[in-house]
Amino acid sequence: MTMTQHITITEVAKAAGVSVTTVSRILNGHYEKMRPATRRRVEKTIRNLNFVPTASAQRLRQTQSYVIGILVGDISNPFSSLLAKGIDDVLQGAGYDILLMNTNNSIDTEARALERLYQQRVDGIIVQPDSRQFSQYELAIKNKLPLVVVDREVDDQPQTIGKVTSANRDACYRLGRILSQRGYNNILTISAHYAEASGQIPRIAGLKLAAEDNGLSYHNIETRGHNRRWLAKTFFKQFNALGGRTAVVSLMGPVLFDLLSIFKDLNLTFPTDLGLVSFDDWEWSQYVGDGIFLLKQDMELMGNIAANKLLTQIKKGDNTSSTTFLPVEIVARHSL
């Protein structure tokens, strides 16, 4: 027989002498309470018949799809990739596959992606949200679909909906106090283009409040839609307009690459001419100069916790969960 003959799961079950449910469980990697001989016989039958199941056929024959939808804002950001890896490490061990979708930090793209996940009948969704309005995700709750929000914060999210994020605001407030104690007069942050629900928002809020409470000036340069040449020109103008000592804070890891290039072109060194702080765990940053001062997040751990929250919801059969705030580690190095 060949694949062009459209062998069905029923025909495989009949040829192997087992039920359709048994074949379905084997196709989805669920071998609990199954005799090894039965598994071998069914797998041999599948190979002999050249059977390839369609995704839709599998879902129609089981109450669960064993697929989890994962939405990330920007797959090109290495920290979104680490988040997805942390999620997959847990879910794969529990017998689930992930359907990873990139929303490109767009609310409209995210809405379309959510609709596709509903159509795919996934067993749950973990979302790194683009929208700050929970109405974007309410259909999941109405359909009793387990949901966990990760990394970014949604303003009106119900307390019963699972959330895992970093304590960004508190960490940045602590950073502001450190900068004041070290004699800095100004905080100059550099932010990248971000989604409506970006993690950079609470970081800015924390630094603004710390600047106000400690008598520092606060300024931000938003790189939205601009290239490195524009950033260099804008940075140079803003930096020269500030009196006293200035600490420059990269609010998003990839911005650090642009800043290091700009500092080199402008012959600026840290900590002599300015202080430098970056978010995210760049291992190589310890070798730049005498090391770059970091605010470090563990994105893989965040993914692990989010996945476990979702699995708990699936096992309990409800969509209620809790909030977890992960601490942001301050790694003191000599760039300040």
From TrEMBL:
Gene3D superfamilies reported for this sequence: 3.40.50.2300, lambda repressor-like DNA-binding domains
Boundaries of every HTH lacI-type domain copy: 7-62
PROSITE patterns the UniProt entry points to: HTH_CROC1 (PS50943), HTH_LACI_1 (PS00356), HTH_LACI_2 (PS50932)
Gene Ontology MF term list: DNA-binding transcription factor activity; transcription cis-regulatory region binding
Start and end residues of each HTH cro/C1-type domain: 7-32
Source species, domain of life: Bacteria
Pfam families in UniProt: LacI (PF00356), Peripla_BP_1 (PF00532)
Keywords for the protein's UniProt record, in alphabetical order: DNA-binding, Transcription, Transcription regulation
Name used for this protein in its record: LacI family transcriptional regulator
CDD domains listed in its UniProt record: HTH_LacI
